Task: structure prediction
Amino acid sequence: MDWLFFGEISLAGLAMGGLYALIGLGFVIIYKATKVINFAIGEIMMFAAYLFLAFAGGMEMSPWVALPLAVLSGSVLGGVIEKVMIRPMLGESPISVVMVTIGIASILVGLVELFWGADPQLLPNFLPRKPVFIGEMYLAPKIAYGFLIGAALLIAYLLYFRFSRGGIYCGY
Result:
């Protein structure tokens, strides 16, 4: 057995699992806040990613300006969708609300295809591209940095929910 290859694949799997945990955290936060299983979350994030592409690529903004602007825009979009389309559905059957979120997801995919086309787009590179090695094991930089950013966000959310007034437990 090639232990180096096994280690590299294991590291990549753990890093990808961390990113999936962050996606799961997004579903949990939205469900806790709205009591709705929102299947449009991924498409809202996709729309924000395309806005980042427009800001950093099309408008040639610095990626470090475009990123918070895209996150803010995605947050506003999510808030508007919740206020205008999901909140009025509260009290309806759960399947009706879920179907509305699936419809919203389809609309967002259609809007992205309308504005940016259906072909895959490359985001501007703004993270380091130097290979990441842990010992002799190689980990792709996008996976490594994605995991680190995701872990930092996960820790920030856990600390917020543990110690803030808006969290689940604030110590009193």
